[in-house]
Specification:
- The chain has helices spanning 20-32, 48-61, 77-86, 94-99, 102-114, 128-135, 152-162, 166-189, 198-208, 247-267, 282-289, 304-309, 325-332, 361-373, 375-392, 395-411, and strands at residues 5-12, 37-43, 64-68, 119-122, 144-148, 192-195, 214-215, 234-241, 272-277, 294-298, 310-315, 337-339, 356-357.
- The chain is an alpha/beta fold.
- The chain has a 7-stranded parallel sheet, sandwiched between helices. A 6-stranded parallel sheet has the order 10-9-8-11-12-13, with helices on both faces.
- The longest helix has 24 residues, at 166-189.
- The model has no long low-confidence stretch (mean pLDDT 95).
């Protein structure tokens, strides 16, 4: 495989790797940086210390960065709601319009005029719009890929199903409709859309008109996430893990605290819950202070000690898309998992064999209590699933697959089949 010059468009430099999206992007790029010339465009981190660390991390990898000086605006406060209201007049979804700043578009256009780029890679679907504006009709002559971490319109559809307030449901459905139109354009026009699961790939092909769709799944660093034999598990200790500035995770936490955890504690008073994640909102901090058996731990540098000690990872997602890295990491560490079907969607895992699945408060409560009663059986289940995870979802294998797809998208005739690659090391 020959070296490529790949220009990557993303929302921020994916470092430190403290969210699922950042972990995925960082783990793949650091394995491809020594094979290709990579240029990574991004908005500056809002956190100044993160911004410095991120640029240094990619400098060490040999990745050139083009960082826009203005960070993205926050997702709270009067300005946020004013921007949401203003988006009612736009044909674009809110996040697409927000991220396509004039400065970002100008930086891409200027770079293209001064450098020969073999492939443009949108690391998040909304960034396809930047290419559309920057290149106009010439976009049809470019080779470009788009990484669909989620099918965004599916996320918005699921938001609407769990939103109790009518006016919010109305707004959400407008966003869903806008995203459906936008994704239909992006997936059908890209040289190659790349999904994170066969489930999403099938949807992109059948619902959005893409002629070709490839899959590069989410993965795990099997050298890092391994069972810690010298740590004793606490069987009644539940763990919720995830970015706490992402709406699906906040919905899951609220559902857990309100509809599931009280019944679990009533049946087993020794139960306690740790909520571990970055950027928790003020309401969640306040709520956790009011519940004696709940601990909130924000912005930890390493989640492995929590995965090693807890008796069970709970993934009560009602809204979601793509696949969950936290499930892969937990099972690779030998940590048992109870999840909703949406939480485990897209992963090659089976209920009762690799993890427990439940989709309503009563059954989720029952699954947790079952895990309490059979801790050794659940740990054996997780150990077996972990062996499969470390073989099936290695970042090393997945980076090799992305490399092959980039080569195909950059140079091969589009009439040739998209390359396949074994799932095993």
């Amino acid at each position: 495989m020959r070296p490529l010059h790949v220009a990557i468009l993303d929302e921020e430099l994916p470092y430190p790797p403290t969210s699922g999206k950042r972990i995925r992007t960082y783990e793949l790029l650091r394995r491809l940086a020594d094979r290709h010339r990579l240029t990574l465009f991004a908005h500056r981190h809002a956190d100044a210390s993160e911004a410095v660390a991120a640029e240094e991390a990619f400098r060490r990898l040999g990745v050139r960065t083009v960082v826009l000086p203005r960070p993205l605006p926050p997702k709270s406060g009067p300005g946020f709601y004013a921007r949401l209201a203003g988006n009612l007049l736009s044909p674009l979804p809110y996040s697409v319009a927000l991220h396509a700043t004039p400065a970002y578009i100008a930086a891409v256009r200027d770079y293209a005029q001064r450098h020969a780029v073999d492939l443009w890679h949108c690391e998040w679907t909304p960034y396809a719009h930047i290419l559309r504006v920057a290149f106009g009709p010439q976009l049809t002559q470019l080779r470009w890929t788009v990484m669909a971490h989620n099918v965004e319109s599916l996320l918005w559809q699921r938001y609407a199903l769990v939103e109790p307030q009518a006016w919010k449901r109305w707004y959400i459905r407008r966003q869903q409709s806008k995203y459906h139109r936008f994704e239909r354009w992006a997936y059908s026009q890209a040289t190659l859309p790349i999904a994170v699961s066969d489930t999403d790939a099938r949807l992109i092909r059948e619902e959005y008109g893409a002629q070709r769709v490839a899959v590069v799944e989410n993965g795990v660093d099997e050298t890092v996430f391994r069972p810690q034999r010298d740590v004793e598990r606490e069987p009644y200790h539940l763990l919720f893990l995830g970015s706490l500035d992402w709406r699906p995770n906040l919905d899951a936490v609220a559902w857990l605290l309100e509809d599931i955890l009280p019944a679990v504690v009533a049946a087993q008073p020794r139960t306690r819950l740790s909520i571990v994640g970055r950027r928790p909102p003020a309401w969640l901090r306040q709520r956790c202070r009011q519940v004696p058996y709940v601990q909130l731990v924000a912005d930890v540098p390493d989640v492995r000690p929590f995965l090693a000690r807890c008796g069970l990872l709970v993934v009560p997602l009602r809204v979601g898309g793509g696949t969950r890295l936290k499930i892969l990491e937990a099972l690779s560490c030998g940590t048992p998992v109870v999840s909703t079907t949406i939480g485990a969607e897209g992963l090659d895992l089976h209920a009762g064999e690799d993890l427990l699945l439940a989709d309503d408060p009563d059954s989720f409560t029952a699954a947790i209590l079952e895990a309490f009663r059979r801790p050794l059986d659940l740990q054996d289940m997780a150990a077996t699933a972990g062996d499969k995870i470390r073989r099936r979802y290695s970042w090393t294998v997945l980076a090799r697959r992305l490399d092959a797809l980039w080569q195909w998208a950059a140079h091969r005739p589009l009439s040739t089949p998209v390359p396949e690659l074994s799932h095993h090391v």
